[in-house]
Design a protein that fits this description.
- Keywords: Membrane, Transmembrane, Transmembrane helix.
- It holds the Pfam family PepSY_TM.
- This is PepSY domain-containing protein.
- It comes from Thalassotalea euphylliae.
- This protein has 172 residues and is an alpha+beta fold.
- It folds into two domains: 80 residues, no CATH class; 72 residues, Roll (Nuclear Transport Factor 2, Chain: A).
- Strands 1-2-3-4 form a four-stranded antiparallel beta sheet, covered by helices on one side.
- A hairpin with a 5-residue loop joins strand 3 and strand 4.
- Helix 1 packs antiparallel against helix 5 and helix 2 packs antiparallel against helix 4.
- The model has no long low-confidence stretch (mean pLDDT 90).
Length: 172
Protein backbone atom coordinates (compact mmCIF):
# COMPACT_ATOMS: atom_id res chain seq x y z
CA UNK A 1 0.00 0.00 0.00
CA UNK A 2 1.33 3.42 -0.95
CA UNK A 3 2.01 5.92 1.81
CA UNK A 4 -0.48 8.44 0.38
CA UNK A 5 -3.27 5.83 0.39
CA UNK A 6 -2.39 4.73 3.93
CA UNK A 7 -2.34 8.38 5.00
CA UNK A 8 -5.84 8.98 3.56
CA UNK A 9 -7.17 5.83 5.25
CA UNK A 10 -5.72 6.83 8.62
CA UNK A 11 -7.09 10.35 8.23
CA UNK A 12 -10.60 9.11 7.35
CA UNK A 13 -10.97 6.50 10.12
CA UNK A 14 -9.26 8.55 12.83
CA UNK A 15 -11.64 11.44 12.15
CA UNK A 16 -14.62 9.11 12.55
CA UNK A 17 -13.27 7.72 15.84
CA UNK A 18 -12.89 11.12 17.50
CA UNK A 19 -15.86 12.91 15.91
CA UNK A 20 -18.20 12.90 18.94
CA UNK A 21 -15.61 13.55 21.68
CA UNK A 22 -14.09 16.33 19.58
CA UNK A 23 -17.51 17.89 18.95
CA UNK A 24 -18.14 17.86 22.72
CA UNK A 25 -14.77 19.56 23.37
CA UNK A 26 -15.42 22.19 20.68
CA UNK A 27 -18.95 23.08 21.84
CA UNK A 28 -18.08 23.18 25.55
CA UNK A 29 -14.90 25.12 24.74
CA UNK A 30 -16.96 27.78 22.98
CA UNK A 31 -19.34 27.97 25.95
CA UNK A 32 -16.39 28.30 28.35
CA UNK A 33 -14.93 31.11 26.26
CA UNK A 34 -18.13 33.15 26.57
CA UNK A 35 -19.20 32.05 30.08
CA UNK A 36 -18.62 35.48 31.65
CA UNK A 37 -20.91 37.07 29.07
CA UNK A 38 -23.94 35.01 30.13
CA UNK A 39 -25.12 34.95 33.73
CA UNK A 40 -26.75 31.55 33.21
CA UNK A 41 -23.29 30.04 32.68
CA UNK A 42 -21.33 31.94 35.33
CA UNK A 43 -22.77 34.43 37.82
CA UNK A 44 -21.46 37.97 37.33
CA UNK A 45 -19.16 39.29 40.03
CA UNK A 46 -20.86 41.78 42.33
CA UNK A 47 -19.16 44.79 43.94
CA UNK A 48 -18.69 45.25 47.66
CA UNK A 49 -17.76 48.25 49.78
CA UNK A 50 -14.12 47.73 50.72
CA UNK A 51 -11.02 47.33 48.61
CA UNK A 52 -9.26 45.44 51.41
CA UNK A 53 -10.91 42.30 52.87
CA UNK A 54 -11.52 42.72 56.60
CA UNK A 55 -13.88 39.86 57.52
CA UNK A 56 -12.43 36.73 59.08
CA UNK A 57 -12.88 33.10 58.07
CA UNK A 58 -15.38 32.42 60.86
CA UNK A 59 -17.65 35.19 59.52
CA UNK A 60 -17.30 33.87 55.97
CA UNK A 61 -18.40 30.41 57.09
CA UNK A 62 -21.20 31.71 59.31
CA UNK A 63 -22.67 33.96 56.61
CA UNK A 64 -22.40 31.24 53.98
CA UNK A 65 -24.25 28.83 56.28
CA UNK A 66 -27.23 31.22 56.29
CA UNK A 67 -27.82 30.50 52.59
CA UNK A 68 -30.05 27.42 52.56
CA UNK A 69 -29.61 26.42 48.90
CA UNK A 70 -25.81 26.38 49.28
CA UNK A 71 -26.17 23.57 51.84
CA UNK A 72 -23.02 24.51 53.79
CA UNK A 73 -22.59 23.07 57.27
CA UNK A 74 -18.79 23.16 57.60
CA UNK A 75 -15.61 23.95 55.71
CA UNK A 76 -15.80 20.46 54.16
CA UNK A 77 -18.77 21.70 52.08
CA UNK A 78 -16.72 24.55 50.58
CA UNK A 79 -14.59 23.95 47.51
CA UNK A 80 -12.75 27.28 47.39
CA UNK A 81 -12.73 30.96 48.23
CA UNK A 82 -12.07 33.49 45.50
CA UNK A 83 -11.06 36.84 47.00
CA UNK A 84 -11.40 39.85 44.69
CA UNK A 85 -9.98 42.83 46.62
CA UNK A 86 -10.46 45.28 43.74
CA UNK A 87 -14.19 44.49 43.70
CA UNK A 88 -14.61 44.15 47.46
CA UNK A 89 -16.07 40.68 47.18
CA UNK A 90 -15.31 37.15 48.36
CA UNK A 91 -16.78 34.35 46.25
CA UNK A 92 -17.46 31.19 48.21
CA UNK A 93 -17.78 28.18 45.89
CA UNK A 94 -19.44 25.16 47.39
CA UNK A 95 -18.83 21.55 46.42
CA UNK A 96 -22.45 21.47 45.21
CA UNK A 97 -21.58 24.17 42.59
CA UNK A 98 -23.37 27.04 44.32
CA UNK A 99 -21.59 30.38 44.56
CA UNK A 100 -22.20 32.77 47.43
CA UNK A 101 -20.71 36.24 47.00
CA UNK A 102 -20.02 38.13 50.21
CA UNK A 103 -19.03 41.73 50.77
CA UNK A 104 -15.42 41.55 51.96
CA UNK A 105 -15.94 44.19 54.66
CA UNK A 106 -19.43 43.60 56.05
CA UNK A 107 -19.88 39.91 55.18
CA UNK A 108 -23.29 40.71 53.71
CA UNK A 109 -24.51 38.19 51.12
CA UNK A 110 -24.46 40.03 47.79
CA UNK A 111 -25.53 37.22 45.48
CA UNK A 112 -26.32 33.52 45.46
CA UNK A 113 -26.26 31.65 42.15
CA UNK A 114 -25.65 28.21 40.69
CA UNK A 115 -22.47 27.86 38.58
CA UNK A 116 -23.36 25.99 35.39
CA UNK A 117 -19.84 26.60 34.09
CA UNK A 118 -18.50 23.88 36.41
CA UNK A 119 -20.80 21.34 34.73
CA UNK A 120 -19.60 22.53 31.32
CA UNK A 121 -15.96 22.27 32.47
CA UNK A 122 -16.53 18.68 33.61
CA UNK A 123 -17.98 17.85 30.18
CA UNK A 124 -15.09 19.64 28.48
CA UNK A 125 -12.36 17.70 30.27
CA UNK A 126 -14.30 14.41 30.44
CA UNK A 127 -14.48 14.15 34.22
CA UNK A 128 -18.29 14.27 34.03
CA UNK A 129 -18.21 10.70 32.71
CA UNK A 130 -15.55 9.40 35.09
CA UNK A 131 -12.88 11.07 37.27
CA UNK A 132 -9.96 9.75 35.16
CA UNK A 133 -11.68 10.18 31.77
CA UNK A 134 -9.44 13.12 30.99
CA UNK A 135 -6.57 10.59 30.80
CA UNK A 136 -8.20 7.56 29.18
CA UNK A 137 -10.61 9.43 26.87
CA UNK A 138 -9.55 13.02 26.24
CA UNK A 139 -5.79 12.38 26.06
CA UNK A 140 -6.18 9.76 23.28
CA UNK A 141 -8.60 12.10 21.48
CA UNK A 142 -5.96 14.85 21.64
CA UNK A 143 -3.27 12.49 20.32
CA UNK A 144 -5.52 11.33 17.46
CA UNK A 145 -6.33 14.99 16.73
CA UNK A 146 -2.59 15.65 16.44
CA UNK A 147 -2.36 12.67 14.06
CA UNK A 148 -5.25 14.13 12.03
CA UNK A 149 -3.45 17.45 11.85
CA UNK A 150 -0.28 15.77 10.61
CA UNK A 151 -2.05 13.58 8.03
CA UNK A 152 -4.17 16.54 6.91
CA UNK A 153 -1.07 18.68 6.48
CA UNK A 154 0.49 15.92 4.40
CA UNK A 155 -2.67 15.58 2.29
CA UNK A 156 -2.75 19.35 1.79
CA UNK A 157 0.92 19.67 0.82
CA UNK A 158 1.15 16.55 -1.38
CA UNK A 159 -0.37 18.09 -4.56
CA UNK A 160 1.88 21.14 -4.27
CA UNK A 161 4.92 18.93 -3.80
CA UNK A 162 3.97 16.81 -6.84
CA UNK A 163 3.47 19.95 -8.94
CA UNK A 164 6.80 21.34 -7.81
CA UNK A 165 8.49 17.99 -8.51
CA UNK A 166 7.03 17.80 -12.04
CA UNK A 167 8.16 21.35 -12.78
CA UNK A 168 11.60 20.62 -11.33
CA UNK A 169 11.96 17.40 -13.39
CA UNK A 170 10.82 19.20 -16.59
CA UNK A 171 13.64 21.72 -16.18
CA UNK A 172 16.30 18.99 -15.99
Amino acid sequence: MKFATLNRTIHKWASLVIALPLLLVIVTGILLLVRKEFAILQPPTQHGIAKVPTIDFATILANTKTVDVANVNSWQDIDRLDVRPSKGVIKVRTKSSWEVQLDSETGKVLQVAYRNSEFIESLHDGTFFQKQANLWLMLPVAIVLLLLWLTGLYLFCLPYYKKWRRKHNALD
